[in-house]
Design a protein that fits this description.
Strand order of the largest sheet: 19-18-5-6-9-10-11-22
Order of helices and strands: HEHEEEEEEEEEEEEEEEEEEEEE
Strand content: 25-35%
Number of strands: 22
Oligomer: single chain
Number of domains: 1
Distance between the termini: 35 Å
Number of helices: 2
Helix content: under 10%
Length: 320
């Protein structure tokens, strides 16, 4: 099975195999301001805090090779070193070039879990430095530093069967055969600012998770804007669920691995009500806490969908 995994995700190091034949292609919204971002740049522009206090004695400089050392300090937040309301340029990420590459920015981690029963899951983890939450009844809500979204393709006996699209607190699963594709590569449409992943272009209401209302209050917009090919600037890993261990497919040893074990968040902690930057609307904050990373995305899920109490619906018809 290892040979099949290599062909799915790491084939660019095997000269006679097309490495990107089934990997997703992402269309970012045409008005997007916050593009995919470099993982190391996020560490360079943040500092580890617990309860809004910088951790004394934390590794310095913080790198992808020592990030997991922060786990011993409790609930850690990688907090911006500067006030984000000043719009520091690093929050904007890197706009993909004409080929779809985020130059000088590793903005994706591709993680493969071979279940050993014929099923292989390939996770495409997308990183952004900032999430713009959107406007609800004239109020800006749900912004946060750091943003992890993902697609997952399930292969059954080497054949791609389903594609998972992460969206806010949950997401959607579609049969691979019915999703839009460029050749064999599924097309993904990223929501404006929120980067939630959708299978079609249109307005997507997410006021109630998994129930797309017409003319809803909280809406993502998608279109075929800037094309991003995440595989062009990515790290590639395997995941062994029995030992919860990650390993790089890069045999040169140049790909960092330890950062995948970091269990803290990739952004600021939700600002308290006393912070002048914070505002709430019907209990919802303008600035929420940052997200956890790939390690917390149920990499060994039984179903195509994560187990979060929501029914896993495998859709055979494209829709919102």
């Amino acid at each position: 099975m290892e040979g099949k995994v290599l062909r799915i995700c790491w084939g660019r190091y095997i000269t006679n195999i097309d490495s990107r034949r089934t990997a997703p292609l992402v269309y970012l919204y045409s008005g997007e301001k916050y593009f995919p971002a470099d993982l190391s740049a996020q560490l360079a522009n943040t500092q580890p805090e617990v309860n809004y206090v910088v951790i004394p004695g934390a590794p310095s400089p913080l790198t992808l090779n020592n990030l997991d050392a922060l786990n011993s300090y409790g609930s850690v937040y990688l907090t911006s070193k500067v006030d984000i309301t000043t719009n520091p340029v690093w929050l904007n990420g890197v706009k993909p070039d004409a080929s779809g590459k985020t130059n000088n920015a590793i903005s994706c981690a591709i993680i493969v879990n071979d279940h050993g029963n014929g099923n292989v899951d390939a996770f495409y983890m997308y990183f952004y430095a900032f999430n713009w939450g959107g406007v609800v009844l004239g109020r800006q809500l749900g912004d946060h530093v750091g943003d992890w979204e993902h697609n997952m393709i399930r292969f059954s006996n080497g054949v791609p069967t389903y594609v998972w699209f992460s969206q806010h607190s949950n997401g959607e699963a579609f049969a691979y055969d019915v999703v839009n594709k460029n050749g064999l590569r599924p097309l993904v449409y990223s929501g404006n600012g929120s980067h939630a992943n959708y299978a079609i272009t249109r307005e997507h209401d997410h006021t109630i998770p998994d129930f797309n209302l017409p003319g809803g209050l909280i809406v993502d917009y998608t279109d075929a804007g800037t094309l991003w090919d995440p595989t062009l600037s990515a790290y590639y890993y395997s995941y062994d669920a029995s030992s919860s261990a990650f390993a790089s497919y890069d045999t040169s040893g140049n790909t960092p691995v330890n950062w995948l074990y970091y269990n803290g968040t990739w952004g600021d902690e939700q600002y308290p009500d006393s912070d002048k930057r914070q505002k709430k609307f019907f209990g919802q904050p303008k600035y929420a806490s940052g997200p956890t990373g790939p390690e917390d995305k149920q990499l060994n899920r039984t179903n195509v969908c994560p187990s979060d109490g929501v029914a896993c619906i495998l859709r055979w018809v494209l829709g919102p």
